[in-house]
Amino acid sequence: MASPSTAYQGGSVLRGLPGSLFQLWFLGSSVLILLFIAAPLASTIAAPTWERLVETLVDPAVIQSIWLSMSTSGMAALIALIFGTPLAYILARHEFPGKNVVESIIDLPIMIPHPVVGISLLSLTGRDTWFGTFISDLGVEIMGTTTGIVSVLVFVGLPFYVNTVKGGIESIPPRLENVSRSLGAGRGHTFFRITLPLSWRYMLVGMIMCMARAISEFGAIIIVAYHPMTAPVLMYERFTAYGLGWSQPVAVILILVSMLFFLLLRAFSLPKRSGI
């Protein structure tokens, strides 16, 4: 532990720090971070010629891949809404042994390398496994199908949805639900009449974040379903087959789509708490 005299000397050094140097550090760091993110994206957007960009926009393969990315990402967000909301509610409202383990499992898809996600799904659903045989008998195929793509996107997008909705439900005072139950309403009635109206914005933001994460997925998709091609996979193929010039227009479209998602996220961002 630092002695009082050492702490005093340290405080003296901080008090002697010029305010202009402090402001220069903050301003300079902020500008560098913005440039670090914006400069590569701006150079990508400016790279393709207008003719090539228009040619890419009307390319049926590009249109199909973007639609596939959008539709499967939307489906993943819908699945996250239906199946992730109950889990988010349980984590927000209940304490139980092993809760930290459950929360760590939910966060795992954020941490683990994306090809591991694809390998894990195939390890479970491969035709040489009992579960793979079971779902195959039901007519469900994962490898090389849209179902496989949606499975991957749900896997990588769920943490964003569950954590967002969990935080939203935690911000709602439990006493409102307790009052509802004390007046005779059941748990389901209380959820749909009290919790849902107060947390719908968090759910919407969670779905947008889930979609935004899903639409950029690449590493797991190329293992589970290289075909049909999503937009990131198509961009990768054009880069490896034709070079940078033919992949940039697709990249521009993906950047613009991602920007649209985050503009939506800002538009629906949560208002300041008004003290419920």
TrEMBL record:
It comes from Pseudodesulfovibrio nedwellii. The keyword Iron-sulfur does not apply. It comes from the Bacteria. Its main location: membrane. Belongs to the binding-protein-dependent transport system permease family. This is Molybdenum ABC transporter permease. InterPro entries: MetI-like, MetI-like_sf. The chain crosses the membrane at residues 24-46, 66-92, 142-162, 202-226, 246-265.
